[in-house]
Amino acid sequence: MSLGNLLMIMIGLSGGIAVGSGLVALLTVLDIIPRLAQLTRNQKKMVSLQWSLILGACFFTVIDLLDLKILLPLVHLFIMLFGGIAGIFVGLLAAALTEVLNVLPILSKRLGMKKNLLALLMAMVFGKVFGSLFHWLIFLHP
Amino acid sequence: MSMSNQAFLRLRTKVKINQDVSQIFLEDVAQVVASEDVEKKLKRTLIYVRNEGDGNLLVIDAIRIIRSIGEKFPNLTIQFIGSEETLVEVEATHKKSASKLLLILVWMILFIGSGLAIMNFHTDVSMAEVHQRIFYLLTGEHNNHPYLLQIPYSIGIGIGMIVFFNQIFRKRLNEEPSPLELEMYLYQENIEKYAKAYENKENRRGEHEFR
Q1: What residue ranges of chain A have pLDDT lower than 50?
Q2: ipTM score of the complex?
Q3: Could you tell me which of A30, A21, A94 has the C-alpha nearest to residue A54?
Q4: Which of B114, B128, B134 sits opposite A124 (nearest CB)?
Q5: Dihedral, CA of residue B44, residue B49, residue B54 and residue B60, to nearest 10
Q6: In this predicted structure, what is the pLDDT of residue A129?
Q7: Residue B91 to residues A115, A125, B19: CA-CA distances in angstroms?
Q8: Which of B114, B157, B179 sits opposite A90 (nearest CB)?
Q9: How many domains are contained in chain A?
Q10: Same-domain status, A93 and A107
Q11: Strand, coil or helix: B86
Q12: Across B10-14, B53-57, B166-170, which has the greatest mean pLDDT?
């Protein structure tokens, strides 16, 4: 193996480690995994949830970079399921961002809207859903 | 030392009083334990009289209480247990209810703002290209508008946010507070901490006026 190839392996490995730890750091800061474990009463299975993250990241990297096509039966049903699950994950990310968590207490207290907290929360939820639909269906429309 | 010349006080961390009430007695801000006759008199000891200039947050600290009690009961030994100060929140008699118009305005701000934020996010991370790529890898067809993926995705965002806050399904999955409840609590606690540090003028003698 030439020195150039060896260097390439080094660069690839280093880049992968940096990106991988960055991903984990982001998810750790946002506390999404503990939140899901808490909601489903699976605190003892945290390690297995971590493995799901690691395997997911590796799997999708491999099929993306190697251009592997997975042609499943019932592909349209599967792709809808995939979209829904991906959306739930992004929704968790969006909700966990500290901006959202910090804005709501201040708004509700300053404006005397403690009772309307649920309504304000739903405004954000619907805003995200309709914003996303608008983006795909109208904004990017041919 | 007998109970007759000892009193135990535990200051409440936070109390609310009505706007119409101007006199604050010891029983309003503290739990009192002493011998029976002393306890009764102690509870009705005037600690503070509010004046017009006071804001809606007051801090009553142990020193002020010792001063007030010391004048009336010179032989009494006072033992404080726990907190050294009480935050008094003055409540308006007619609580202003939030206006419907304001609520609608805030609702629209949050609705449009969070919609805009998700669009910015999608553009920022090139989500459209990622969706096209996933669609291609799964179906083997090129599609510039993989709606089949994107519509469930959009609905999923809403589901994910609701799951995180767990607000819709009020039935508790467990006793732990939700992230929003925690954040509300921390925000309230910070306000109280600030008030205790800055509303009490004795705590910052010689310091520059903060506000």
Answers
A1: none
A2: 0.78
A3: A21
A4: B114
A5: -40
A6: 94
A7: 17, 33, 5
A8: B157
A9: 2
A10: no
A11: strand
A12: B10-14
Domain enclosing residue A111, as ranges: 102-142
CB contact under 8 A, A123 and B110: yes
Residues 82-141 of B with CB under 8 A from A: 95-98, 102-103, 106-108, 110-119, 121-122, 128, 133-140
Residue ranges of domains in chain B: 3-92, 100-191
Contact A32, A98 (CB under 8 A): no
Fold that domain B3-92 belongs to in CATH: eubacterium ventriosum atcc fold (2.60.480)
Q: Do A64 and B133 touch (CB under 8 A)?
A: yes
- What is chain A's length? 142
* Contact (CB<8Å) B122/A135: yes
Residue type at B95?
K
pLDDT tens sequence across B26-63: 888 888 888 888 888 888 888 888 887 777 788 888 88
Answer whether residue A24 is part of any domain: no
> pTM for the complete prediction?
0.71
Whether A54 and A76 map to the same domain: the answer is: yes
pLDDT of residue A14: 92
Instruction: Using an 8 Å CB-CB cutoff, list chain B residues near A127.
Output: 110-115, 118
Question: pLDDT value at position B183?
Answer: 81
Choose the closest CB to A121 out of B145, B151, B165: B165
Give the pLDDT confidence of A118-134 residue by residue, as tens digits. 888 888 899 999 999 99
CB B84 within 8 A of CB B62: yes
**Does residue A103 contact residue B114 with C-beta atoms inside 8 Å?**
no
